[in-house]
């Protein structure tokens, strides 16, 4: 059901504890039959609970309790009976005066006109009482709102300047601000480049082998060699540090073949090795070793020095 401003003011005053006994009984009766009104009262209790958390408990002095006990004992003592004054006895009617002889006639006196008496008007004071109660409740709501605003301002000030004075639940949580700082990526440092011309005797090169010293990736560029039908060219690494030649894979049919197989070897072995190409069956040697003599060989030479 919809609740008026008076109901909301009653709920606020009930939570604040400023109602008299009759009004508190009225609010408790409404709470017993109206769950929505009960929720309004609980909401006000939650809002006003902040005021209790900011005010510490104060133990009264013993003399206060003694004064209260004395006042209660004085008020409960027997009071003197109230004696009303006796009413005066009714006076006897005066006897009519004796007739006196009329000596002379007095001129007639004009009678005064009757005074009009305004009829009494009955005044209905119920509206006045209701208006007074509404004004009092509105003032109470304004006082509560002012107290809440002052409490919030005080709480904000304490949170900003002295958060350690607040209870743990009311302390502001620390804010973590993440700042992203972008630094320019370092420019890549050119690495050394090595090239080997794989050729037969002193003829024109059949393949050009290029090796990057930093990544140890290699690229084979086919120049003037064509594989026979059903055959494949296979690249080998031959070094005194190795017990036998190591296959670097079959050279593909396209112009460029790139692989990272040199990453398994150290720089000294790569730079001093001899690179050879043999003709194997399609797909490469089945045994992992050359099945024919190399037809193209070459060694690496440094073409681009590393930048220090």
Strand order of the largest sheet: 6-3-2-1-9
Number of strands: 9
Quaternary structure of the protein? single chain
- Reported by name, the CATH topology of the domain at 193-304 is Immunoglobulin-like
Assigned CATH architecture of the domain at 193-304: Sandwich
Strand content: 15-25%
Structural class of the secondary structure composition? alpha+beta
Shape: rod-shaped
Largest sheet: 5 strands, antiparallel
| Alpha carbon gyration radius | 58 Å
Note down, in words, how this protein is organized.
The structure is a single chain. With about 300 residues, the protein is α+β, with helices and mostly antiparallel strands. Among the domains are: about 1-55 and about 135-170, no CATH class; about 195-305, Sandwich (Immunoglobulin-like), CATH 2.60.40. The chain contains 6 helices and 9 strands. The chain has helices spanning about 5-15, 20-35, 35-55, 60-75, 125-160, 265-270; strands at about 195-200, 205-210, 220, 230-240, 245-250, 255-260, 275-280, 295-300, 300-305. The strands form 2 sheets. A 5-stranded antiparallel beta sheet has the order 6-3-2-1-9, with no helix packed on it. Strand 2 (about 205-210) and strand 3 form a beta hairpin. Helix 1 (about 5-15) crosses helix 3 (about 35-55). The longest helix has about 35 residues, at about 125-160. The relative contact order is 0.09.
Topology:
Elements (H helix, E strand, L loop, with lengths): L4 H12 L4 H13 L1 H20 L7 H15 L49 H36 L31 E7 L5 E8 L5 E5 L8 E8 L7 E5 L5 E4 L7 H6 L1 E8 L14 E4 L1 E4 L4
Antiparallel strand pairs: 1-2, 1-9, 2-3, 3-6, 4-5, 4-7, 7-8
């Amino acid at each position: 059901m919809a609740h008026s401003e008076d109901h909301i003011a009653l709920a606020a005053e009930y939570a604040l504890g400023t109602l008299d006994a009759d009004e508190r009984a009225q609010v408790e009766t409404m709470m017993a039959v109206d769950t929505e009104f009960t929720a309004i009262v609980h909401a006000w209790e939650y809002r006003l609970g902040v005021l209790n958390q900011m005010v510490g408990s104060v133990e009264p002095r013993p003399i206060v309790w003694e004064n209260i006990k004395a006042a209660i004992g004085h008020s409960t003592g027997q009071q003197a009976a109230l004696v009303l004054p006796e009413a005066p006895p009714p006076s006897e009617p005066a006897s009519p005066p004796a007739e006196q002889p009329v000596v002379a006639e007095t001129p007639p006196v004009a009678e005064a006109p009757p005074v009009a008496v305004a009829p009494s008007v009955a005044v209905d004071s119920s509206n006045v009482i209701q208006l007074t109660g509404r004004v009092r409740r509105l003032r109470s709501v304004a006082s509560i709102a002012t107290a809440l605003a002052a409490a919030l301002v005080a709480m904000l000030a304490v949170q900003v300047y002295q958060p350690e004075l607040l209870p743990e639940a009311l302390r502001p949580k620390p804010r973590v601000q993440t700042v992203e700082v972008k630094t320019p990526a370092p420019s890549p440092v050119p690495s050394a480049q090595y090239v080997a011309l794989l050729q037969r005797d002193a003829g024109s090169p059949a393949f050009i082998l290029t090796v990057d010293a930093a990544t140890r990736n290699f690229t084979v560029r086919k120049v003037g060699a064509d594989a026979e039908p059903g055959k494949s060219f296979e690249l080998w690494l031959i070094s005194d540090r190795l017990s036998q030649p190591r296959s670097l894979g079959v050279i593909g049919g396209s112009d460029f073949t790139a692989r990272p197989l040199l990453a398994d070897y150290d720089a000294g072995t790569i730079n001093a090795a001899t690179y050879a190409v043999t003709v194997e069956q399609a797909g490469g040697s089945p045994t992992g070793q050359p099945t024919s003599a190399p037809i193209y060989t070459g060694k690496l030479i440094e073409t681009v020095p590393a930048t220090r």
